[in-house]
Structure formats: structure tokens, C-alpha cells
Specification:
The protein has about 325 residues and is α+β, with helices and mostly antiparallel strands. It has eleven helices and six strands. It folds into two domains: about 220 residues, Multidrug efflux transporter AcrB transmembrane domain (Multidrug efflux transporter AcrB transmembrane fold), CATH 1.20.1640; about 90 residues, 2-Layer Sandwich (Alpha-Beta Plaits), CATH 3.30.70. The longest helix has about 35 residues.
């Protein structure tokens, strides 16, 4: 009952966090990776030792303009991503064959700590080029996938709660679930946008996978509590009058321990991936961690209070 009693405070906190996330998106934006805008992805493995990422990044930034072809066409930002013990994945704009060879030479010929130029022998594992048209198609499919998943969730919840039409109609359960899903996605995306601005992170296909995973994990928690509300409403169906807010508060009391415990176990695993997992999945795990945390928060502190607010609004509207 504590949550329902202070429902407006919890809803206000969510609104503030969502607004801050939207502001972060407008200010910082999100840099699309080569998966979406096209470009080249080069994977190399050094045969003896791998130069430090900071040193290599500085070398590429300061010295690669010495190559006429690269500076003439504008190489643009270079994203280095360590892989394995000795390798790097290098993301750039689309490269010609000549520029590709020049980039490999730049990755190998590097001066470290003011010493004479050192040669770091390397082996190229793969080189892939993604055209802009492929990136646009992937962007379109990602947006369509998110929209279809959201619509499917509304339809499923409306169908599952079709026999619970009083005092809140079944389709409103679905609508509130989507509102909470937007909350659960926008806040992690806002956090990701802020981190991307300061650490040079770009969106790739894993980002879309993370968003879709958040949608599934978040709605699962929300449905558990909604289902408890439905069962308690059925139990009070024979009563002439009942207090909807009391039933919602009782349902939260019966469900929140389970929701928090389940989410906490998942979050602990994801945090392990963030701190000890490979670099390639670090930001994916971080996105999921934020989504899981705010998804649990919204299921308990946002979705159910919104149901009560909708019921109170309906009472005032009907006189």
C-alpha cells in the first residue's frame, strides 16, 4: 500500500527520468555504426604483442593524415575495439583497396612512448564492407521489428485481460504496458547516448537486440503483477463494492519480492559480463542491465500506480 499511497511521487520520478533521457538524446544524439550507415570493418591480430589502445588511437589520429589518399578523401572517425588477447576490430568509413592497405600499414607502423618507429607485425583476419543501402535497410527493419513487437504486446495483453473489464478496461492494461515499455527503453537509451558522447560508442546490431530483449524482459514483470491484479479482482467479483486501489496495493505486496529477486539475479549476471566479459559485449550487457533495473522499477512503481490513476480519472469523469 505504500507504493499506491505515494503513487504520484513514483510516477513523477519516472516522468523526470524520461524527460532527462529525451534531453540527452536531443543534445548528444546517437552515432550510428557501420551496420546502419555503411562502412568498413577490419579485424587484425598482432603476431607478437598488441599496442595499447590509447597509443594506437593517438597514432592513427596524429599520423595517418601524412598519407595523401586518406586525408584527401577524409578517413573520418576510427573506432578501435579490442578482441581476444592480440586483436583489434577497426571500424571506419568505406575504404578503397589502396586505403585499405594504407590503414593496415598504419596499424603496423606505430611509434610508442616517443621511441623510434616500431613495427608491430599483424595478420588481417577479415575485411568486410557494408554499403549505405544495406545500412538503411537494416535501420528500417529494426524500426519495424520494434513497432511490431510493441503492437503484439498490446494485443496479447488486451486478449489475456479481456474478461477483466471493470473498473479498468482490458485494452488500457495493454496501453499502460506500452507506456512502461517506452519508459524502460527511453531511459537506457538516454544513458547510452550520454556514454556514447563521452566514450565514442556507436550503435550496432547488438543495440537493437538489447532494445528488443528489454521489451521482452520488462513486459514479463509487468504481466506478472497485472495477472495478480486480475486474480484478486476475480476473487472480489462477488462483492458489491470494493476498493480498486486496495486490490492493486495487495497485488503488488504479493508480487514485488518475486519480481525483485528474479531481476536481481539477472542483473548480477549482466554486471559480471560488464566488468569481466569481452569488450565486444560490454555495452550490450550494460544496456540490458539498465533496462532490467528500470523495467523492474516500472513494473512495481509505475505500471500499477498508473492503473489506479486511470481508475480514479474514470471515476471523476463519470461523476
Amino acid at each position: 500500500m505504500f507504493i499506491i499511497k505515494y503513487k504520484k511521487i513514483f510516477v513523477s520520478v519516472s516522468i523526470v527520468l524520461v524527460l532527462l533521457s529525451i534531453v540527452a538524446l536531443f543534445i548528444f544524439g546517437i552515432d550510428l555504426g557501420i551496420d546502419f550507415k555503411g562502412g568498413a570493418l577490419t579485424e587484425v591480430v598482432y603476431t607478437r604483442e598488441r599496442p595499447a589502445q590509447d597509443s594506437l588511437q593517438e597514432h592513427l589520429f596524429n599520423n595517418i593524415e601524412q598519407d595523401f589518399s586518406l586525408v584527401q578523401n577524409g578517413l573520418g572517425p576510427i573506432l578501435l575495439q579490442p578482441t581476444g588477447d592480440l586483436g583489434y576490430i577497426v571500424k571506419t568509413r568505406a575504404l578503397t583497396d589502396t586505403e585499405h592497405l594504407q590503414l593496415l600499414n598504419a596499424l603496423s607502423d606505430i611509434s610508442v612512448a616517443g621511441e623510434e618507429e616500431n613495427k608491430y607485425p599483424l595478420e588481417e583476419k577479415s575485411f568486410n564492407s557494408i554499403g549505405p543501402s544495406v545500412g538503411r535497410e537494416l535501420t528500417r527493419k529494426a524500426i519495424v521489428a520494434i513497432i511490431l513487437v510493441s503492437l503484439a504486446i498490446i494485443c496479447f495483453i488486451a486478449f489475456a485481460f479481456r474478461k477483466v473489464s471493470k473498473p479498468v478496461s482490458s485494452w488500457r492494461y495493454g496501453f499502460i504496458a506500452i507506456v512502461t515499455l517506452l519508459h524502460d527503453v527511453l531511459i537506457p537509451v538516454g544513458i547510452f547516448s550520454t556514454l556514447a558522447h563521452f566514450y565514442g560508442i556507436e550503435i550496432d546490431t547488438l543495440f537493437v537486440v538489447a532494445v528488443l530483449t528489454i521489451l521482452g524482459l520488462s513486459v514479463s514483470d509487468t504481466i506478472v503483477i497485472f495477472d495478480r491484479i486480475r486474480e484478486n479482482l476475480k476473487a472480489h467479483a462477488s462483492a458489491k463494492t470494493f476498493n480498486f486501489s486496495d486490490i492493486v496495493g495487495q497485488s503488488i505486496d504479493q508480487s514485488y519480492v518475486r519480481s525483485i529477486s528474479t531481476s536481481l539475479t539477472v542483473i548480477l549476471v549482466l554486471l559480471a559480463l560488464v566488468f569481466f566479459g569481452p569488450v565486444s559485449t560490454k555495452y550490450f550487457a550494460l544496456m540490458l542491465t539498465a533496462g532490467m533495473f528500470f523495467g523492474t522499477y516500472s513494473s512495481i512503481f509505475l505500471a500499477s500506480p498508473l492503473l489506479v490513476l486511470v481508475e480514479e480519472w474514470q471515476k471523476k469523469k463519470n461523476g
